[in-house]
Write a structure and sequence with these properties.
The chain has twelve helices and ten strands. The chain is α/β, with parallel strands linked by helices.
């Protein structure tokens, strides 16, 4: 029985790879894609999600536009990383498949209410605005969500957007706080994990060698945003952040972490959006998240290449 998921996303190139991994994996039943403002503004994220579905030949996937700005803060975007479209690196045609008329938050609420308790897993790849809004608007859905597997935060790697904060949490820390205090089982893919799954020349060329339009697009996207991270970190490649969420759903044994307490800093402008992870369990605060710390990079890229090759 395929696992029912909703991907909540702000595509970006690594979001695109995550969506493609889900579409290439029969273990997952993608109920819909909900879009949020993040890497680029909402009109582009909701366009990009449809571009990705059409690239994969999956015009049947329903795509919904959600919140266009964070709960309380001004929107911060990341065109410096992802390019002005969010999917720079290859020219792809504008989508012809429609955007759904329903708001993403309403889709999340209605879907979770309609499905059996524990049937739906939420997979946020961007800021948590849509998820937090749904939980605020419909508190009854929280106990029905199987789990939330998200990309966001950092502990040992600290921040990539401010000295203390990772981008997705930094964009909407108030939303993150709602999600982390919700009592829903959480699995967190922080920078500590994503920085262990770096692209290499061989890994990028393996996508290209698939000889498919999807493989070519993935290679072109990774080529594009790799340049930014290699310059920033002095690394040999770039982390593919968001596909870690989907890879975990398919092959959880690729990742190791600890069930710990994670709090979101929302008081201090200096450390706003920091994920304060009690990795060493030095507080008495109750654990609320499986916070990942290690990944099998070889296994991750083998899975990714094999599944993207199916599209």
């Amino acid at each position: 029985m395929a696992r029912k998921i909703i991907i909540d996303t702000d595509p970006g190139q690594d979001d695109a790879v995550a969506i493609l991994l889900a579409l290439g994996s029969p273990e997952l039943d993608l109920l819909g894609i909900t879009c949020v403002a993040g890497n680029v503004p909402l009109p582009l994220t909701s366009k990009n999600a449809r571009v990705i579905c059409e690239l994969a030949g999956r015009t049947d996937v329903k795509v919904f536009a959600g919140c266009e700005k964070p709960l309380q803060r001004r929107l911060v975007t990341a065109e410096n990383v992802h390019g002005k479209t969010g999917l720079d690196g290859i020219e792809l045609p504008d989508p012809t498949m429609p955007l759904q008329e329903m708001h993403a938050v309403d889709f999340i609420i209605e879907t979770i209410r309609a499905e059996a308790p524990g049937a739906v897993t939420l997979c946020p790849l961007g800021p948590l605005t849509n998820i937090a809004t749904a939980l605020q608007r419909a508190p009854d859905i929280a106990p029905k969500i199987a789990e939330i597997v998200l990309m966001g935060g950092a502990y040992f790697e600290v921040g990539n957007t401010t000295p203390a904060a990772e981008f997705n949490i930094h964009v909407d820390p108030q939303a993150a706080e709602i999600v982390f205090k919700s009592g829903i089982p959480l699995v967190v893919m922080p920078l500590d994990v994503t920085h262990k799954v770096l692209t290499t020349r061989a890994r990028v060329e393996a996508f290209r060698a698939l000889g498919t339009p999807v493989g070519h697009a993935v290679a072109s996207w990774t080529d594009f945003f790799e340049r930014f991270d290699m310059a920033k970190y002095g690394s040999q490649g770039a982390p593919l952040h968001d596909p870690c969420v989907i890879a975990y759903l398919i092959r959880p044994e690729l990742f190791e972490g600890r069930h710990i307490n994670v709090e979101i800093e929302i008081q201090s402008e200096l450390t706003m959006g920091m994920t304060v992870a009690d990795w060493w369990r030095v507080t008495k605060r109750a654990p609320n998240a499986m916070f990942m710390g290690r990944a099998d990079a070889e296994g991750f890229y083998q899975l990714l290449t094999e599944r993207i090759g199916r599209l």
